[in-house]
């Protein structure tokens, strides 16, 4: 089955760090992100990963009664926001859970696993 | 530049639709995808299964916590996305405004930061 692993994290934690702290945090987590990518690729050589820009860059579009309303900022008002996703074809949910748990963001955010509808 | 259009809508409303109504919504999505393809902006898109089938994974203090259900218990939930290649976010917003769910839900447009699949 094709699964989307949605990566949710509190993006404000980056804003609260100094540049040095942010650089150190990135350097510390980078090998683990690379290891997670490699493991995902072993599980599914065609896996895709998409990382989104900061939610502050987002625009939200609604159309009501034919009128377009565009606002700045992310849609969700939750503390943790989607920051990216992986698309992987995996044998079962257990494998999806195993892979979700090696994504570094699982330790400070949440990984939501959703099957993708294939019609 | 790539932009992801994240589609948020009330799943309950979708479930009240008849098969015929759903087919007509799918037809609108299909025609949007075809137009985007013809314009050379279509880079991908997926429909996610209902959050009833979601599983959320977190690791806290070394313990893996797996819960049934979505990351957030909000009324409008992420149901899918389009990936558009556009020259600007305004152009991506134009495409996002054509997504049928923009008429009752909301579409968040976010620039893609980095695509590991292309790295």
Q: Can you describe this structure?
A:
The complex is a heterodimer of chains A (119) and B (119). By secondary structure, chain A is an alpha+beta fold. Helices cover 31% and strands 35% of the residues of chain A. Chain A is flat. Chain B has one domain: Alpha-Beta Plaits, CATH 3.30.70. Chain B is built from 3 helices and 6 strands; from the N terminus they run E-H-H-E-E-E-E-H-E. In chain B, the strands form 2 sheets. Chain B has a 4-stranded antiparallel sheet. A two-stranded antiparallel ribbon of chain B has the order 3-4. The relative contact order of chain B is 0.30. The model of chain B has no long low-confidence stretch (mean pLDDT 93).
Top keywords for this entry?
heterodimer; A: 119 residues; alpha+beta; Alpha-Beta Plaits; 3 helices; 6 strands; flat; B: 119 residues; two-stranded antiparallel sheet; 39% strand; globular
Short description:
Chain A has 119 residues and is an alpha+beta fold.
CATH architecture of chain A: 2-Layer Sandwich
Task: Give the neighbour order of strands across the main sheet of chain A.
Answer: 2-5-1-6
Indicate the low-confidence ranges of chain B by residue numbers: none
Reported CATH architecture of chain B: 2-Layer Sandwich
Number of self-contained structural domains of chain A: 1
What does the radius of gyration of chain A come to? Answer: 16 Å
Ordered list of secondary-structure elements with their pairings:
The complex is a heterodimer of chains A (119) and B (119).
Chain A: E1 2-9, H1 12-15, H2 19-43, E2 48-52, E3 59-64, E4 67-72, E5 81-89, H3 93-100, E6 110-117
Antiparallel strand pairs in A: 1-5, 1-6, 2-5, 3-4
Chain B: E1 2-10, H1 11-15, H2 19-38, E2 42-48, E3 55-60, E4 63-68, E5 76-85, H3 89-96, E6 106-114
Antiparallel strand pairs in B: 1-5, 1-6, 2-5, 3-4
